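Page 37, top half.
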Amino acid sequence: MSAEQGDGTVGKALDVLDMVAACGRPVRFSELLTASVYPKATLYRLIQTLVHQGMLSFDSDRQTYALGVRLVRLAHAAWATSSLAPIARPYLDELAAETGETIHLAQLDNGQVLYVDKRNSAKPVEMFAQAGKVGPAYCTGVGKAMLAFLPDEALQRAIDRQSFHRFTPHTLDTPETLRTELEAIRGRGYAFDREEHEPGIICCAVPILSRTGRVIGALSVTSTTARTSLSQLEAGADRIKDTAARIAAEAESWRFPEQG
């Protein structure tokens, strides 16, 4: 990892936070040093500053670092003021109760999907998408639903950030195949995940758009091939669109960061 040119110390410190967060557990300095592009002295100085500022915590008994309480407070404030989740909560509850399936709410974060809320199905199934996780946009229903309605320049920047890793035999793994898919999504107004990210996981997703057409998020109904089919999910597309429209209307008075 490395900070963008011109970001200086702040960018480097954020890189360190990203490294700690990516580990998903308390981590030792030696592990961070192995993964870091920074010299030992630079990395140590950055970590000490983050600890002093409460962005990282240090366990002296185990000699490990973890994300700090101050960062948790900032994350909660960001969730409350910049996320669709507080607005969308009652609408997700309603859609989950009606469909009995898993509901995902997502926003774009630098061309990737940030899952901001979720409702489990009546019979929960283990899957990648969880609130707070970041996933690929090119092979998820919510990701493609948002990409399809971005302006040309923003779409190109987002496509440039995709890895096009082939997760399953159904993954769209080139910019060309993705663009063809996005044209179809714009035409019908909703997207599918055809087992493109995880085997057996399918969904129907719609964008959440402002009155001016700006992408502010996406909503999906997700299930499994063992329980239902894409055609059955598609039959509920109008209901998902209606929910997305109501979330968008509720969000009109809020100020969200520009997406993508």
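Page 37, bottom half:
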Amino acid sequence: MTIERFEADERLVRRLVDSQFPQWAGLALTRVSPGGSDHVIYRLGAELSVRLPRHEGAIRQAAKELRLLPRLAPCLPLAIPEPVAVGEPDLEYPWPWGVSRWLDGSVARYEELGDSVETALRLADFLTALQSADLSGAVDLSSAVEQDEPLADRDEQVRAAIADIAGAFDARALLAIWREAVTAPGWDRPPVWYHGDFHTGNLLTTDGKVSAVIDFGGLGRGDPARDLMMAFTLLEGRARDAFREALAVDDATWARGRGRSLIGGVFAYRAYAATNPWVRAQTTRQLTAVLSA
């Protein structure tokens, strides 16, 4: 599937900020690279960041984060984005966009944290707190979050994606893992909060430790297996085992989580491997972990 992408340049971002938020007019703009597959990101002055969706799939994120993240933040042991405003579309830019407080840190690296049990336990603590967060009465949950999607709904798409990357990976083994995930018993307990895109690229570190979790566009309620992707994108060996044990993940949930990570890996590899060396390296490691875990 081809996604039409919009690249907002500095001139456009400058005009959007200055016209809609004059209190920040004139603050220095610095593009953040890489900004991610869903957003163009600029640092605004010393304390703010501007995030502009690249495609239609990300256009609801700014409003969603402004509504939910301030309520979630007090429940969580790691920093998360602090949204401060949502900008409006205009004649040159078609979608809502967001302004948040700047979060210091570097993107987490497998080479530094992959075998860290301390990191695994810190991430498990974050997910445990997120899953148990109680926002009842604070927001209308029926309209505030995305609904969980059963794995079986993606079966045809996933099989096609696996076929497309068969030259790079063992397609038969990936299909076997996918079948195991689809046929595993589903989550039969009350829905819990999940991040929805919990992988290495959405972690920040300071002083060698995970300090923040970012990019809550996939935030929702349902099956916690969605957030097991971290076990295959960052952790390995004893760290992966510690992560699973701390979360008390049963075999069925683990199989579904492995399937979720397979989905992310095959689609990202197919879409970006030819043009983005960083994504190619990350997704190759992710799918290798899926195959070997």
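Margin note: The chain has a mean pLDDT of 92.
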